[in-house]
Amino acid sequence: MDIEDIATREFSEVDVDERLGKVRSLLERENQKGVIVTDDGSYEGVITEKQLLQSHVEDNTKASAMMRSAPKVNKQDGVRDVARMLVEGGVKVAPVFEGDSLWGIVTADSLLEAVLDNLDVLAVEDIYSEDVVSLTEDATVGQVINKMRENGISRVPVLNENGYLTGLVTTHDVVDVVVRDMDKATRGDRAGDIERILDLPVYDVMNSPVETATIGDSVRDAVEGMLDSGYGGLVVTPEDDDRLVAGIVTKTDVLRALTYTEEDHMDVQITNVEVLDTLSREEVRASIEEVSDKYQEMQVQHAHVRFNQHKEKLRGTPLIYCQIRLRTNVGQVAGTGEGYGAESAFNVALDKLERNVIELKGVQADEEYEGQLLRKLGEL
């Protein structure tokens, strides 16, 4: 299946000099993940809903100030290649070209709908993320924004004082109350300055009840739930207690699963690859393989490296957050770290990853020893 069979020729397009207020209006009215930005008809980039959350620039700002690069997709590209482009570009929409001409767009939703029948072979437990950032009901909208920025995430589960799931707040919810025109009338005392809105309790803006998936659900069922509800992800709960949070499964996790390969070398995916400076893709892959090769019983099925750039800088070098996550035959293991520059952040995360792998192996060794001991006792 080529992307030509999935892409649409219906899309919103704005000029680089268009007001950002117009872009916001398009995103709200058309419920789109992003719009294409052009310069005299030539493709320049995209502006996504997530970007609008990350900046409070004025409506009169030009679109060129906010656009970001998105990978160019060819009409004849395959599903696996395009899924990888979307994941590594950190976008949910990409332009589709016919030769040098902008032909249409492809969205993550349209791609997932096209492969829906093939997702029954995967279970949520095969692809979901166990590392969950959550907040309590008394957290503020400002704290939600900080959590999303710091961790590069788009949804945060909300827990009550007992640690039970009571709600979910997403970038869309925050955009609805923060990034829109502050002069618009809002509910009750929400009208006013930005400080008052940032102090709103998350309880007032979260979604409740929460759309969830259980660990044992098929990925097809989870994706259908996302598409039907319009959500980009679902909270994952244990099969025996839907009040507890086991993880998160997102459309990006599903797209990432579509890119799994059977190549001889490890399949390593990099999100926000544009922040790499003195570090190459090959060096990233080789470093992770070196760690995994030390522990032969652990077979890495997929590796994902995500970089997130902060505004803070040291002598012009930005502070970078890095997360390395391995999906293996013995479970998931991750390492995170920060540093000035991608190479520094990656090395810190790699060191943490190796320590976590050693710990995982130690736990398994203890369990194996315990099992051997119990078997021997049973023989007495």
Explained architecture:
The protein is an alpha/beta fold and 380 residues long. It has three domains: 3-108, CBS-domain (Roll); 121-255, CBS-domain (Roll), CATH 3.10.580; 262-371, Double Stranded RNA Binding Domain, CATH 3.30.160.100. Helices cover 35% and strands 26% of the residues. It has helices at residues 20-30, 49-53, 79-89, 108-114, 124-127, 141-151, 171-178, 194-198, 219-229, 251-258, 281-293, 342-379; strands spanning 13-15, 34-39, 42-48, 73-74, 93-98, 101-107, 135-136, 155-159, 165-170, 212-214, 233-237, 247-250, 268-271, 300-314, 317-328, 331-340. A four-stranded mixed β-sheet has the order 13-14-15-16. Strands 1-2-3 form a three-stranded mixed β-sheet. A hairpin with a 2-residue loop joins strand 5 (93-98) and strand 6 (101-107).
Layout of SSEs?
Layout: E1 13-15, H1 20-30, E2 34-39, E3 42-48, H2 49-53, E4 73-74, H3 79-89, E5 93-98, E6 101-107, H4 108-114, H5 124-127, E7 135-136, H6 141-151, E8 155-159, E9 165-170, H7 171-178, H8 194-198, E10 212-214, H9 219-229, E11 233-237, E12 247-250, H10 251-258, E13 268-271, H11 281-293, E14 300-314, E15 317-328, E16 331-340, H12 342-379
Helix pairs in contact: 3-10, 11-12
